[in-house]
Amino acid sequence: MLLAKNVMPDEVTMLSVISAVSSLRALELGHKECTDMDSMSTGLAVHGRSREALRVFYEMKKAGLQPDHMSITGILVACSHGGLVEDGWRVFKSMKDEYGLEPMLEHYGCMVDLLGRAGLLCEAYEFVEKMPIRPNSVIWRTLLGACVNHNHLVLAEK
């Protein structure tokens, strides 16, 4: 109902919800709560509140909720749009190391977008070249768009 009226909960409200969920230890509802937390962090991210989205992600982890591929995608988008390069790298690396999740094509695409938006174009190109899966046209267009936005025409021509 609040989302329909374009009302977003503030940081205090979200942290209270996370605390309440973890206090209830409602493990049987864990997936639903994870989805709710995904929705909250994604909502924050698309409204330019990337740091708060990241905070929700870490609070979700503290509450014992296991992120899934969708959670990671949402938080990588938040990091990308907020210019949070180090945080994005940390989340990307944690996929395998902490959560046992194999990065999928969209996660690699988010990382290319993150690096490209930050102007780290050579790093983005190297990242694409070293990907263990074949990059698709969306990833190449993302890199090309970043090259154009940052006026790096030499790399764009590659």
Structure in words:
The chain contains nine helices and no strands. Mean pLDDT is 83; it is low at 19-32. The protein has helices at 11-24, 30-46, 50-62, 69-82, 85-97, 105-117, 121-130, 137-149, 153-157. By secondary structure, it is mainly alpha-helical. It is globular and about 45 Å long. It holds the Pfam family PPR. GO terms for molecular function: RNA binding.
Q: Distance between the terminal alpha carbons, to the nearest Å?
A: 49 Å
Beta strand %: under 5%
The dominant shape is: globular
Q: What's the multimeric state?
A: single chain
Question: Total number of β-strand segments?
Answer: 0
C-alpha-based Rg, rounded:
17 Å
The residue-averaged pLDDT reads 83
In terms of structural class, how would the helical and strand content be classed? mainly alpha
* pLDDT < 50 runs, ≥5 residues: 19-32
Largest sheet: none
Q: How many helical stretches?
A: 9
Helix content: over 70%
The succession of helices and strands, N to C, reads HHHHHHHHH
Helix and strand arrangement:
Blueprint: H1 11-24, H2 30-46, H3 50-62, H4 69-82, H5 85-97, H6 105-117, H7 121-130, H8 137-149, H9 153-157
Helix pairs in contact: 1-3, 2-3, 2-4, 3-4, 4-5, 4-6, 5-6, 6-7, 6-8, 7-8
